[in-house]
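Batch manifest, entry 17 of 40.
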Amino acid sequence: EGRETRLRVVLRVRPLTCTETRRGDQQVVHSLGDGAVHVSAARHDATFGFSAVFDAGASQEAVFEGSGMRQLVEQAIDGFSCTVFAFGQTGSGKTYTLMGPLAQSETQPVTPALLGLMQRSFTCLLDQSQSRSSDLALSASYLEIYNEQVRDLLSPGPPCALPLRWSKTRGFYVENQLSVDFESLEAIVSLLLQGSQRRRTSAHALNRHSSRSHALLTIHIRSRAVSTCPALGEGLGGPELIVGVKTAPGCACPSKQGTLCFVDLAGSERVKETGSSGELSVEANSINRSLLALGHCISLLAKPRGKWTHIPYRDSKLTRLLARSLGGSGITLMVACISPSSHCLSETLSTLHYASQAWRVTTRP
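Output type: structure tokens
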């Protein structure tokens, strides 16, 4: 607590798709082991290092255990603000890594082996809440940023824009967002599916289920240690000292409040490659602008602290909502997703450079 902590950055390389294989694309990204990956192509020969690298053969479980996601869940229960976000080109496997296959529903659940980081984290969170000697209250909120509008994915009725506010105590926050309590795995998975089905998606040349918005699912964790301390005047004749906190009748138990936020970013895309036009083109421009603002903040934060004086979080609503995670008091895991195809080389290199910069960013949890 209070010590500088580097963002944990892991890389996931998806397999070549059938379309890429039929087209004759070459695989230009190769894992070297020990968190290193090598890009080998004409006029490009570079090696990048990360906390961990998962190649095309890595399972969903391996990504969950190897990325440090389990530790992130435990830190959120301990009262820290924790965030995991997936970053990369459209069609690079971000949503699959976080949620698993998109074809799932409440009536047709996905195969357990294919579950993403979200569902595995929910299971871990609920298991931890049962094993720890604390009383946990859990709730969830689910938002999307679509064309620079923040919309609630859980509120009834058509999604409407919500105002984004600032306060000294809370930082940037969304006003009037709905937060729903839950106590079981079935309940939170139902909320996840409900919100995901309302999220804006479209098909284009690179992705049949392209996310047209950035989505943020936040789990709010309020814990209070279970205490059997006597009332004032009983036992030792005065307030008891429990876990280093003086207690009094009625409010004797120390409490913690943590958050676990999952951010599924819309993928960067080039209109020329996706064939987008009309509304799709407008959406793409909005997505790219917010991702550019995010990349700019990351590049500034990666510099030594004496080299920057201002981080432009206000340039987009995405960077405002990620301000605490990127440069504040949070603990953050970044999952960079890339394609190994030679056809996607330019976007892959861009993602690798941004991820390398993010690995140098530090926060003070």
